[in-house]
Amino acid sequence: MATSLIDRRALPPGARVSRWAAPDGWDMRVLDWPAQADTPRGSILFQGGRGDVAEKYLESLAHWHAQGWHVASFDWRGQGGSGRCTDAGNCGHIDDYGRYVGDLRAFHADWHASTPGPHVVMGHSMGGHLVLRALAEGVIRPDAAVLVAPMLGFRRGVFGPFAERAAQLLGGLGDTARPAWKGNEKPYTTTTRNTLLTHDAARYSDEIWWQMHQPALMTGPPSWRWVIEGFKSMRALAADPRLGNIVAPVLMLVATRDGLVDPRAALRLAPRIRDCRVVTFGRESAHEILREVDAVRDRALSEIDAFLTERVPRP
């Protein structure tokens, strides 16, 4: 498998960035890359994690696009190029994860109606959590779903099992829209951000390049409300009986040494999904499986390709 099909630091020919208005009028940034094939393989909606923008995943999007898929992605509300929810610098804030799900529901409806089928929805990290929640709530009904390192539990830190209570107490000391911490992806850790995300220094530097050249897209630390609502949403999803009603086949990729999200939460939840295949990665992979070193990333893409070939019929 080729290391890269494109220049990871340039928008590929045919891809376009546009705006989309959520039902409440919120301005959202969208990347859309129509298939070039006469008969498209179908359409993939790829949703990144907290602080992500579509440009971080151009390499993977190009991989699917080369196979004939129409690919698209939008920046979540409050981050990247979508309208921000707080004036606190580049803080990533949300007051209710239900707003994320509502945006996904509305965008998915428009996307599903305007793009060739079959339709596949993929989500990384927070995106994986929100895709799974939307599936459980029945507000999206794709033909298949792929969850990459889904955020179904936070990796325990200094507060251990009392982390949620600590977030509520600390966040309640002031404006909950303020940044929860100053930097990095995780507080109270000596592990560097790049080590938490990927072992591939070149792919990590791509993200920094995009932040330097388009600083308006950069999202810094989350707000306290984002953290508090994250605990709440993950707890509710773990207890949601509707997980067993999900019809779409699901592929879940889990990094068992993930330093950001709790892989055990994903492995506990997966058996409750009636049609879910789980693929695990060990110490060779950090959180961003699709932005890892070639050996890891190539294996992940091969697993996704095999899943799509087997479970998503060609049009």
Summary keywords:
315 residues, alpha/beta, Rossmann fold, 33% helix, single chain
- What is the level 1 CATH name? Alpha Beta
Q: β content, as a range? A: 15-25%
Number of helices: 9
**Could you give the order of the helices and strands?**
EEEHEHEHEHHHHEHEH
Helix content: 25-40%
CATH architecture, please? 3-Layer(aba) Sandwich
User: Mean pLDDT, as a whole number?
Assistant: 94
Which structural class fits the helix and strand makeup?
alpha/beta
How large, in whole angstroms, is the Cα Rg?
A: 18 Å
InterPro entries: AB_hydrolase_fold, Hydrolase_4, MAG_DAG_Lipase
Protein name: Lysophospholipase
Keywords: Hydrolase
GO molecular function: phosphatidylcholine lysophospholipase activity
How are the secondary structure elements laid out?
Elements lengths: L15 E6 L5 E7 L8 E6 L10 H8 L3 E6 L22 H18 L4 E6 L1 H12 L6 E5 L14 H9 L21 H5 L3 H13 L10 H15 L11 E6 L7 H7 L6 E6 L12 H18 L4
Parallel strand pairs: 3-4, 3-5, 5-6, 6-7, 7-8
Antiparallel strand pairs: 1-2, 2-4
Description of the structure:
With 315 residues, this protein is of the alpha/beta class. The chain has one domain (16-155, 191-221, 238-311): Rossmann fold (3-Layer(aba) Sandwich), CATH 3.40.50.1820. It is 33% helix and 15% strand. It is built from 9 helices and 8 strands. It has helices spanning 58-65, 97-114, 126-137, 163-171, 193-197, 201-213, 224-238, 263-269, 294-311; strands at 16-21, 27-33, 42-47, 69-74, 119-124, 144-148, 250-255, 276-281. It has an 8-stranded mixed sheet with strand order 1-2-4-3-5-6-7-8, with helices on both faces. β1 and β2 (27-33) form a beta hairpin. α2 crosses α3. 47% of the residues are buried. The mean pLDDT is 94. Keywords: Hydrolase. This is Lysophospholipase. Its EC number is 3.1.1.5.
